[in-house]
Queue: 2 jobs
Job 1
Amino acid sequence: MSDTALVVMARYPEAGKTKTRLACTIGHDEAGGLYRAFLSDLAQRFAGQPCDMHWAYTPAGVDYHAFIATFAPACAQHMRCFPQQGADLGARLLNVFKWTHERRFERTIVTSSDSPQISREIVIRAREALDEADVVLGPAEDGGYYLIAMRKPYDVFSSVPMSTSVVMQRTVELAECQGLSVRLLEPLFDIDELPDLLRLAQLLEADRALAPVTAAYLATRRNLYDNYLYSHAPAFDLHRADQPV
């Protein structure tokens, strides 16, 4: 058992409740299939190393471990699952840190499931940063964060307006008001809407190893995605890795 818990905040891909902003463009079935690819990439990258991997899932009534095992069976023995608890995202995040602290993990790293390109190296750097910092954050380019790591369940969530462009700023301010030291990692982007998917497609055209299952899924759906991408963003060419977004 590692002294570090890596917890992925995830949901069971119910139709109409998964990647809803992206689904407005590509449809609920496609959004669900894409999200499963994200989860598969994360499972295969992190199960068993470099930390003990957990899924904090919603809704609470599903057998999430069995669900993950359907597309990542070799990883199932290296993962634990527990339901998210709390009335809002801030409360659910705080409860994750309480859950791992109660189980005597010395470090906890929490990530979203919306950035399948997150690397093992970023997680290792987050773990190492906790040797000196109380709170480690991976900034998301939309003003939130894709990763938060702490050694104790500090409340850096209450009163922070989640899902807004000031989440990162307000979290840092709340931590500093409590006398906590903060360390920032490199920024990443979440895949929430069509422009984010365009950017991910470009990234994976250049390096499929960043999220191989997602890259393969996009490749098998190329014709369908071309229709979506070109109809909504005609200046973007999915086949050109050098195309700016």
Job 2
Amino acid sequence: MSRKILYITMLIVLVVSLFGCASKPKVVKVGLSFSDFATERWKPEADQMTALLKAKGYEVLVQEANHDVKLQNDQIDNMVTQGVKGLIVIAEDGEAAATAVDKAAKAGVKVIAYDRLIKTQNIAAYLSFDNTEVGRQEAKGVMTALGLPGSSTWTKDNPAKVVLSGGSPTDNNAHLVRNGQMEVIQPFIDSGVIKVVADQWVDNWDAAFAEKMMENILTAQQNKVDAVIASNDGTALGELQALKAQGLAGKVPISGQDATADGCNSIVKGEQTVTVFKDIRLLAPKATDMMDALLKGQPISGTQDFTLKLLTGQDLPGSIKALFLPVVQVTKANVYDVIVKSKFQPYDAVYRDIPADQLPPKP
């Protein structure tokens, strides 16, 4: 009798154990694929998204491709093999990444293109800032510094000599930024009051490349450059090194974007003219909320449908859901209120090396 009771007890324990295993929910995996960690912002955003996704109960895999297009595609393929159900991708090359993303989507993986468009209709969503508006605000800031419209200095006989410095040509955002820049400056080109004397693009948004490029432009133009419409703070600061070597820093207006600490510091020093603030603190939380909704089969709020043709300027089929966050132009006049007071950048970093008698009060 005792043996029978023992068998029954063991059977009950086994059943309960099996039931417990069967009822234990399987942790869902989400992959984060980054183009690189050399870009200042990406590692902190990777850490932020990882923490937010883990707080929602997901297991997180993170890969960084070091600007290697093939490696990024291989890493995406590998994460799909490891069973991720969602992917947030910062593409090194938005066209090349479509190959791996199409395969992932075919396997049922939800893919969000994060801040850089991936050129396929198979992404579940695209989250970024209004990059065309970024370009508009960069160009407006530089044109205002030149006194345009309305300046009597610049005429058809004496046009302002302007350099266009685009971002990485493989980053679709760089082309959207350029579209916005051209919207602003094209009327001045048409009227003859500005002349584009150089138009180049900066591979990988690399500051050292931008500096060398500007050195060559200044040599070719015999230093006769009146303004630079640069597409982000990193490249602008590289180009400012070349301008500084010729005594032109602070005399030649130059734009940027991202409101980096160094960019804002350059603005308060009177060297960089304008940056465009994109509050990236909003981006990672929004991306993780969107991914959570997608994986739970819920609608994602705030998106609109955009054709790929409109977003890329290429004859690509299909449309995608996209959400664009707002941007703000920042100059010396409002850097304190917009950047410092909001704690986007630390006071001490923005006002580094500024004389004490010129410092505003700490907020």
